[in-house]
């Protein structure tokens, strides 16, 4: 076989490989006109090579951000260096459908795109090769793992009954708030509150009804606080509310508002309508506290005083 025939055969193999390789290949000139459009691009765009060639890429895909991509293509030619576009920066450049199993979670194909300069024999660069990689599996797997980790993190911090922060999360938040107070000072209030005579609710209506009461109370508490406040379930029917940048007068006003709101609630169960009241104990962060447990203890003392005085009331801690 002559050398010319061998060269033609190699050229044929090369062209066949470029056409059928499982990545998108697009060659653009300086005017962003298509010079090469392989079968990957044909199959996923629904546009044949004969139609795409000599057309501007932006006329084929008008939704592509012209200025953004033109700048990148111009830089590839001017600097003679490749540029990579990750799916994490931009999920896709070309809006191709994801041809994955029915169980797939992505409607569009996630893509990594490499923009590479093509050097002519004389050393000049007038063309850019766009290599489009389908990374849908990698992207969706990473997103699924991230979602799973987020869910596990949420579950580790959340009380399953009330969907409030759990005891572990409360302890961490109080430690952080206490350290902030020691370093920067300010007025910060801590509220301990629980449902009055909750055991009687369980005894009279049953534990499922008691669970509904706790959920209704938790919803009332969480819907009453500011974004900067913190609500958690401390244990059983007892809850903690942290009110940053709030003195005891402001905390008392807040607690009285919530106390009245809960006293007016009618909690419907399968067979009954239940009403409950709550007692609140309030204390301010103090420089004499050596640890968050001292702060909690004072709020707990105020809560005990509220119950001792007849329940369904709010009490601010006092040394008297």
From TrEMBL:
<dbReference type="InterPro" id="IPR050469">
    <property type="entry name" value="Diguanylate_Cyclase"/>
</dbReference>
<dbReference type="GO" id="GO:0052621">
    <property type="term" value="F:diguanylate cyclase activity"/>
</dbReference>
<dbReference type="Pfam" id="PF00990">
    <property type="entry name" value="GGDEF"/>
</dbReference>
<dbReference type="GO" id="GO:0043709">
    <property type="term" value="P:cell adhesion involved in single-species biofilm formation"/>
</dbReference>
<feature type="domain" description="GGDEF">
    <location>
        <begin position="186"/>
        <end position="319"/>
    </location>
</feature>
<protein>
    <recommendedName>
        <fullName>diguanylate cyclase</fullName>
        <ecNumber>2.7.7.65</ecNumber>
    </recommendedName>
</protein>
<dbReference type="InterPro" id="IPR000160">
    <property type="entry name" value="GGDEF_dom"/>
</dbReference>
<dbReference type="InterPro" id="IPR043128">
    <property type="entry name" value="Rev_trsase/Diguanyl_cyclase"/>
</dbReference>
<dbReference type="InterPro" id="IPR035965">
    <property type="entry name" value="PAS-like_dom_sf"/>
</dbReference>
<dbReference type="GO" id="GO:0005886">
    <property type="term" value="C:plasma membrane"/>
</dbReference>
<dbReference type="InterPro" id="IPR029787">
    <property type="entry name" value="Nucleotide_cyclase"/>
</dbReference>
<dbReference type="GO" id="GO:1902201">
    <property type="term" value="P:negative regulation of bacterial-type flagellum-dependent cell motility"/>
</dbReference>
């Amino acid at each position: 076989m002559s050398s010319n025939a061998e060269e033609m055969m190699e050229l044929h193999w090369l062209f066949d490989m470029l056409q059928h390789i499982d990545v998108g290949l697009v060659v653009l000139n300086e005017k962003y006109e298509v010079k090469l459009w392989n079968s990957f691009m044909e199959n996923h765009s629904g546009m044949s090579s004969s139609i795409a060639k000599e057309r501007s890429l932006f006329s084929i895909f008008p939704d592509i951000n012209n200025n953004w991509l033109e700048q990148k293509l111009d830089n590839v030619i001017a600097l003679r260096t490749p540029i990579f576009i990750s799916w994490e920066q931009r999920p896709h450049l070309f809006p191709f459908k994801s041809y994955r199993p029915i169980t797939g979670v992505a409607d569009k194909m996630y893509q990594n795109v490499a923009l590479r300069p093509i050097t002519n024999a004389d050393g000049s660069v007038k063309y850019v090769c766009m290599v489009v990689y389908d990374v849908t599996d990698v992207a969706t797997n990473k997103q699924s793992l991230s979602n799973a980790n987020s869910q596990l993190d949420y579950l580790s911090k959340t009380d399953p009954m009330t969907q409030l922060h759990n005891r572990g999360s409360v302890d961490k938040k109080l430690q952080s708030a206490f350290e902030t107070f020691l370093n920067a000072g300010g007025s910060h209030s801590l509220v301990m509150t629980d449902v009055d005579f909750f055991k009687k609710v369980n005894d009279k209506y049953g534990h499922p009804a008691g669970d509904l009461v706790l959920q209704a109370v938790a919803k009332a508490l969480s819907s009453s606080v500011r974004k900067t406040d913190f609500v958690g379930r401390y244990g059983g029917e007892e809850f903690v509310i942290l009110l940053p940048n709030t003195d005891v007068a402001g905390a008392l006003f807040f607690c009285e508002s919530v106390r009245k709101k809960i006293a007016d609630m009618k909690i419907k169960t399968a067979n009954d309508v239940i009403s409950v009241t709550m007692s609140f104990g309030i204390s301010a962060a103090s420089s004499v506290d050596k640890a968050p447990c001292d702060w909690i203890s004072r709020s707990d003392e105020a809560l005990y005083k509220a119950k001792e005085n007849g329940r369904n009331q709010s009490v601010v801690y006092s040394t008297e």
